[in-house]
Amino acid sequence: MATLDLYTLAWEHFRPGSSPVDWCEGNYLISGNIAEFVNTISNFLFLLFPPVLMYLFKEYGRFVTQGIHLLWALLIIVGLSSMYFHATLSLIGQLLDELAILWVFMAAYSLFCPKKYFPKFCRSNRRTFGLLMFTCAIIATGLSVWKPIVNAFVLMAMGVPTMVMLYTELKRVQDQRVYRLGLRSTAVWGIAVFCWVNDRLFCDIWSAISFPYLHGFWHVFIFIAAYTLLVVYAYLYVESELPQRQPLLKYWPVNEFEFGIPFISIRNPGKEFKNSI
């Protein structure tokens, strides 16, 4: 009987509407099969851009670190998880969505966090720091299952040290294109946070003007902010730890157009760089 109750409880978490989180968009208004239609389809950039970024960063993955491709793959998982969550509003969907974001943060910190921010016991060793981030991710995963209602706010807070480090690092950047990309990324991140907070806390106001879709705009803006920030940090990592590679920020499809897709080119590849992180 106890086993049956356990299975029943587990399957209950897959039930549509089992999540305690419900965003401003009305449920099942556009489609009878999708709870939050706009919030679901607005994740399209998470599926569309990462394959392009994997192609553009082939050189980076070969001569700097293959871990960059893990980040792009994790963004796809974030998009798929978010689509599943908003389509069903299930607790499992919520956890998948939030845990995918958590692992993006931890993987990005492991790869690109400047060594001067490492704890002293890591002794500027990126492998040790990566193991620390992996351990933190495991612990945070367990805590997120225990208290899922606070996950979204914790994840939002994790963006603060990312932006503080960016501000500090941009002050030493000499390449003005990188500096401008960092500023644009910060601005888009700010717009994304505005959308998230307003959808979460001021739903009644936006519903009164028949526009309960700010969370959908959050998906669009936060993807743009996330991937461009990763590009900036990818540049900063090479510049500080592998300067002999001579990183160069470029844009695709037209390099002179700074609102294209940014990527990092390696001007002095040398030998292939072996990095397991």
UniProtKB/TrEMBL annotation:
Gene Ontology CC, one term: membrane
Q: Which PANTHER family match?
A: ALKALINE CERAMIDASE (PTHR46139:SF3)
What is the top EC class of this enzyme, as a single word? hydrolase
Task: Show the GO MF annotations.
Answer: hydrolase activity, acting on carbon-nitrogen (but not peptide) bonds, in linear amides; metal ion binding
Question: What EC number is given for this enzyme?
Answer: 3.5.1.-
Top-level taxonomic group: Eukaryota
A Pfam family per the record: Ceramidase
User: What does the UniProt function comment say about this protein?
Assistant: Hydrolyzes the sphingolipid ceramide into sphingosine and free fatty acid.
The way this protein sits in the membrane is described as:
Multi-pass membrane protein
TM helices/strands, residue ranges:
37-57, 69-87, 99-117, 129-146, 152-169, 181-197, 217-238
Q: Which InterPro entries match?
A: ACER
> Where found?
Membrane
Q: Which organism is it from?
A: Stomoxys calcitrans (Stable fly)
Protein name stated in the entry: Alkaline ceramidase
Where does the UniProt entry say this protein principally localizes? Answer: membrane
